[in-house]
Structure formats: C-alpha cells, structure tokens
Fold:
Amino acid sequence: MTTTGYIGRRLLQIVPVLLFVVTVTFVLINSIPGDPVRILVGPAADAAAIEAARAKYGLDQPLYVRYVRYLAAVATGDFGTSIHYGGVAVTEKIFERLPVTLLLLASSFTLAIGTAIPLGIFAAKNRNNGYDHLARVTSLIGVSTPSFWVGLLLIIVFAYYGDLLPPSGLIMPWADPASVDGATSRLDVLVTAASHLVLPSITLGTLQMAAITRIERSSMLEVLNKDYVQLARAYGVSERTILRRQAFKNAQLPVLTVIGIQMTTALGGAVLTETVFNINGMGNLIITAVRAQDYQLIMGTTIFFAIVFVLGVLVVDVLYAVIDPRISYGGGAGE
Amino acid sequence: MVPVSDSTAAVGDSARTGGVADADERSAVSRTSQVLRQLKRNSASRVGLYVIGLVTLVALLTTIDADLFDYQFAATFWYHPENDPAGSTILLPPVGIENSFGTGSWAHPLGTDHRGRDILVRLVYGTRIAVQVGLIATGIGMTIGTVVGAVSGYYGGWVDDVLQRFVESLYAIPFLILVIAIMSAFGKELGIAIVGVSITTIPVFTRLIRSQVLSVREMEYVEAAKAAGVRDRHIIFRHIIPNSFAPVLVQSTLQVGVNILIVASLSFLGFGVQPPTPSWGQMLAHSRQYMIVNPWFSIWPGLAILATVIGFNLLGDGLRDAIDPRSND
Structure:
C-alpha cells in the first residue's frame, strides 16, 4: 500500500473513534444534573419564559432525538450555540481560542523536544557517570512534579520576586501593535508575546521534556548495545559518527511513540497551565463551560480536543512510516 | 510490600525467556528472591519503598488514631485551639521564618493557611485522599484494562476491532477533561473521582496487555492448551494474564504516581473532593491568592505530591530493572 493509501485508511479509522467520542460525551453531558435553561433565564423568570428558552435551544425534545440531531449537526461541522456566551456559535468560540492553545502547545513541545533529545543522548553517552545521574534525577523529578505547581513556583520566583516576566496572560505574536499595551511596532509585539510565553511553556513542557529525556536515553542505550553498533566500533568508527550515523535515527521510534502519548497529557496539561496563568485558551474555555453547565460548549470543546489529539496521532504514525520504511502499511497499529 | 507471588513470577520468567527457562517450583522461588535481592541492592528503589512506606503509614495513622492529628483542626473553617475564629493567625510562615503576619512557631511547624488552619495537619489528611484514590483507581483500571486487553488480543477479529476503537476513543479525550466531564455529570465526590480516574487508567493496561497477549498467544503451551480442549476463559485467566504479570506490575506502580498527579490536578481545578475536606491539589488552588504574602503555603503541598509520586516512580523503575535487568544499563 502506498503512503497516501495508508493515510487514507488511517483517516477512515478515525471516523468510528470520533463517533464513540461524540456518543460518550453526549451521554455524559446529558447526565449532568441541573438545568442549563434555568441558569440562562435566571431565577426570576416565569414558566413561559423557561419553556420558550427550552424550545429555542431544542432542549424540549427527548434524548434520542437530540442525539440524532446532534450527530447530524456535528457531521456538518455545526456544534450548536453557546448558552453562556449569549448564543454565539460554539465553533466560533473554539476557533477564537484554538490558536492560543495551539501556540502554547507548539511552544512547549518545541522546548521539550529541543532540550530532551540532546539531554537524553548526552546521558546515554555518559552512561553511569555524574552527568548521566544528573540527567536521570532531573527527568525523574520532571515526570513526578505536578505541572501546575511548577507554574506557581515559576510565578513566585520570576514574576513576583524577580519581576522579570509577566505572571499571566498570553499575547499572540500576530496581534495588532495598537491593541498591545506599550507596543508601537511589530518587534515590540513579538518581544511581549515571547516574554508571556516563557513561563507557561516551561510549565507545560516540563513533563514532556522529562518523559522524552527518559525514553531517549534508554532507547539510545539499547541501540548502542546492538551488534551492528559494536561491529562499527570494532572497525574503529568514532563514537561521534556512530551516534550520528548509526544510532540516532534507529533510536527515535520509541521516542516518537512517547511523544504521541504525551500529546494527550499535554492537552490536559494545557487546561491546568491556562488556569494557572489566566490564559484565555481552549482549556479555560472548557472549564468555563463546565462551571456554567453550557452543554453545547462542553461537548464542542471536548470533541475538538479529541479531534486535535487524533490528528496529532495520525501525524506521529505517518512520521513513523517516514523514519522506518520497514513498517508495513498493511499491519495493525504501528507499535 | 511488593506482591510478587512465587508462581506468577515463575510464569512471567518463562515467558520472558521464550519458555526456555525451567519454570519449576524451585526456580520460581529463586527467581522471586533474586528479584527481591535486586530491588534491595538498588538504592533508588529502596528510597522509593521507604517513601511509599512512610506515606502509607501517615495515611493509616489518620484512620487509626483520629486524635493524633486533630481532624477538626484540618477540616473545619476558622478553627483555633480556643475555638475562637478571631484569634487564629492566618498565613503564618513556617517555624523560624517571619512575614507580615508574624513569626512561625513550633505550634504550626509549616505555618497556617488563609483560614488559620495548620498546614502540616492538612497535608497529613491530604495524604489519605491521595493514597486512597491512587491505589484504588489504579487497581480498578488495571483489572478491567487487563481483562479487556487479554480478550481483545486473544480473540482478535471483530472483537478486537470494536474494543480497540472504544479504547482509542477513551484515549482520545484528554483524561483530565474526561474525568471532569464524569465528575460534573455524576457528582464531585471521592467515589466518583475514583471511578473517573479508573476509566482513564483502563486504556493504558489494555494496550499493554494486548501487545503481550499477541506474543504469548503463539507460544507452544497456549497452543497445546487449545489443542487439549481447554476452555478459552481458562486459557485467558490461567495462562495468558499471569504470563503478562511482570510488565503489569511495573506499569501499575508507575500508574499510581500518574493517578495521584491526576487527582491533585482535579482538586486544583476545583473538581476533586470538596472543601472543607483537605486535599493537596485544593490547598495549592487556595494558595494561589497568597503567593506574595506567604509563598510557603504554595510550596508544601507541591512537595508532598512530588515526594509521593517520586516514591512510586523510583519503585516502578527499580522493579523493571529487577525483573528485566537488560532494560536499563
């Protein structure tokens, strides 16, 4: 099967997964006690106003009718309207917030991968000496620390005591300079955006960095012990060349798997990071939606999170095939 | 302690070495003691065991002797020894340190929170919630995940397809959001939190076991059992699952740490156990407003979480090295 065919087949597999996601979310959300309509109209409203609002949002229909309608709507990209935000389309709200979260995710993954891979290789190369132990202890602490606590500590040290970086908010690098405080040029906006991004990216990236460092180290160690590497060594190939030419590429498959798994962790982590730094992204949106019992918005954001994740996994799977041409496109999940 | 029973360790061993190892009773005993010896020799996993032991002891103490750490003191709002809300000192720093509210004393070694409650006592009670949810949720998730994974891998075909798509969809919803959705639907109680976290744990074990089963399924002794007409259920529960015991044990240990982190995150977002019941994540959430006046309030609960999770991670890593010495170094 060709690569395109493979991608096509994987895309098809996504359909039942998303169907399950929509169903699970729908069932869960509709089990929430409490009446969103009452929250919307307020305690003073009379019965007629409540009924009118109920009919307006289609909440007067039986559950299965709502489910079928919802499925049909979602299939056409319509996620309904948000009660909390006064009837704005859920998709509009999501597309307003999605860039913020994607920027945060991209920046923290860049940070994590950019530091973890060299660190892991370095640790493997210096196996069992001081540097290795330092890297191992650091990554152990990294995978054991609650990310939001890292955020709180960073705020205490760098924002309150050091007064070096802003403790909250996020500025988009493509924002209009006129809308950004104290910015007169594009450069000002970029600098402000970068300074706002530092602490949240470290907060969100710590766990990813630690997890990737650990797998990079053990994967490199395993490859460095392989017969063909020993043979290369026996032929007098320098350790540098071995690392670069023979070992590196072959050690990256398990690393990719872990990066894929870390994506779902990171999406959850984005919720925490956005809460700690008061960033108006997808995570904040979903928490607001849950607090306000905004059914459509909760379902829309949850499903969107799932879509982002599933597409991310697809990218990892395709990268897998690119890195290792031996992987059969016909087989099951590329583990 | 680590529940490594002799028989399971022996089967695990024979599977690992491709059935070459002699899995009789004697080698089983020596294998287990070898794993235990390895564990003891590894100083990292020893530290892990000590930490877990200490944390469990603290959690148990609060249930055995309620007077040792005054629960009222931890849970009630505005509590003070004289029961006088006005007299309690809020946001006191740890012993020997001074802030705008006063100087810390041994009466409250780690200081007090925004309601004048002793932070140490609240930490101690928070341990109970963390350990409870961590252990129980991991246990439930592991059990269900193992069975689903074994069935899925053993039967293959459409059973496997359906189960795998279901597990993938559970995986696709970020687990924090899944638990939040479950808790807002069914209530913000400890029991619901446990169920929610167990559900997010299922896919981890399903994947692990399924891949194990796919390799074990082809082994001669399973084929022999099939040929001898042994029932499927018997093969799954007596042969396939015990054979995957070693990796499951390692993963469970690590997963307890992960689940403790999830529970803390939930509490931090306000979806865990509700106040006044003390939990670590909730303490951190409260501390956010007082980071400038008393940063210590933010530091202690995080350290408690970090230490506990490190304990489980160290033990998990140690177990993996002891069971499969090639895996690391």
Summary: The longest helix of chain B spans residues 119-155.
